[in-house]
Amino acid sequence: MLFSQIIGHDKIKKQLIASSVSGRIAHAQLLASAEGGGGYPMALAYATYIFCKNPTPTDACGVCSECYKMNNLEHPDCHMVFPVNDAKTQSDNPPTSDKYISQWRQFITNNHGYFTVNQWYAKLAIENKQGIIRREEAAQLYGKLSLNSFEGGYKIAIIYLPELFKNEAANALLKIIEEPPAKTLFIMVSENPDNVITTIRSRAQYVPMRTVEDDVISQNLISQNLANNPQLASKIAHSAMGSWANAVAIANQNENKSPISDQFTALMRLCYLSDYLGIFQWVESFVPLGREAHKEFATFSLAMFRNCYMKNLGLNKLAFVVPEAEVFTDKFAPFVGGKQIEQFVEQYELLLRDLAQNANAKILFTHFALSLCKIFAQAKKDIA
């Protein structure tokens, strides 16, 4: 991955290049990025630049043997750690990144470095489980970094989502960061930096990555033929909330409608109509999709209700609405005022909390939908 392949973030690129040129590379760095906002490709580009034999003032050369290895994600001195899990994990043989490294390389290549964690979980097909980073992972990483560098330069560990380290794994990683082997660099990419264990976060150089500007996203959508006119590109960029991965997903949804969007719209209409039989049937069909789909549904729904509320207030420019959702938000906005938005958000927060605690999904979604029926019924009375 080269810096030139990353959408936006020019200031961060210059900052990282300057650290490499000056030789003042902090041994642990935490790139804080929005999901799909460019944190992981930035980590790859930074590692490529450090390894490169003939770097230019603005980028790695892209043609030397070091760049070739990094382009294939097979550099022997670059170790990648990421959350994994098995659908049926054996307690005496827990999975680590090494088990899935081939899938990870293919996944990163296919998505050009831009992705969401749910897309990775879908690739793993781990059903209702979340990916985690275990103590065994930290032990394996320590063993790798203790060896001499193959190429005689830096040894780099790129860690995706350090906030998912289990406690014992985080403590093991902390020991390595506190006493790293010579010429060792830890590049951590976090999407929730506040959840990274404090002792690790305090020992890393914090590199905040702002969201990508709308005009930068819009220009790239057009140049990559993901939008066929400036108006559509601008609308998608505005809806993407600064994430290139979101922009690509929205552009694809414009051609292939999102199943989560369909599920959301269907349930909201059933709740609005208080169609209890339809709600029970919806729950029966939706629950088998698995926990990650459930979480994606709740997160998507919260964003949609925010959009409805913004439109209710007349703040259309602050409503990040994908093209396929405009009809829904226009119709439902009158029922999402200040009183209702608090009630809706409360129900969704309860849903997300209970999902995280592995509560029975069928009971959760049934209770959730019936609660929304009451909110919509009162909203209709208030408007009448």
Question: What do these coordinates show?
Answer:
It is a single chain. It is built from 17 helices and five strands. It is α/β, with parallel strands linked by helices and 384 residues long. It has a five-stranded parallel sheet, with helices on both faces. Strand 3, helix 7 (167-178) and strand 4 form a beta-alpha-beta unit. Helix 1 (10-22) runs parallel beside helix 2, helix 12 (259-273) packs antiparallel against helix 13 and helix 16 packs antiparallel against helix 17. The N and C termini lie far apart (57 Å). The model has no long low-confidence stretch (mean pLDDT 87).
Provide the fold topology.
Layout: H1 10-22, E1 28-32, H2 39-51, H3 65-71, E2 78-81, H4 101-110, H5 117-124, H6 135-146, E3 155-160, H7 167-178, E4 184-190, H8 198-201, E5 205-208, H9 214-223, H10 230-239, H11 244-255, H12 259-273, H13 276-286, H14 291-312, H15 326-332, H16 338-356, H17 361-383
Parallel strand pairs: 1-4, 1-5, 2-3, 3-4
Helix pairs in contact: 1-2, 2-3, 6-7, 9-10, 10-11, 12-13, 12-14, 12-17, 13-17, 14-16, 16-17
Keywords:
384 residues; Zinc Finger, Delta Prime, domain 3; 17 helices; Rossmann fold; alpha/beta
Low-pLDDT sequence parts = none
Structural class: alpha/beta
CATH domain fold name of the largest domain: Rossmann fold
Strand adjacency order, main sheet: 2-3-4-1-5
Order of helices and strands: HEHHEHHHEHEHEHHHHHHHHH
> What is the number of helices?
17
CATH class of the largest domain: Alpha Beta
User: How many beta-strand segments?
Assistant: 5
